[in-house]
Structure prediction request, 56 residues.
Amino acid sequence: SGGASIYGKTFADENFNNNHNKSGLLSMVNFGPNTNASQFFISSIALPYFDGKYVE
Prediction:
């Protein structure tokens, strides 16, 4: 579901400096470039295919 964040409906990607290389990482859900909102996920395994797609 999700809703608005303190930055509005969506906001820009911050950076992709970190990798999804282990479990327990918090990342923002998005629907394409610069579409972050108020949803997030916590990884339970390494997710290298999320690198460059989801801001950690």
User: Anything to note?
Assistant: The chain has a mean pLDDT of 88. Residues 1-56 form one domain.
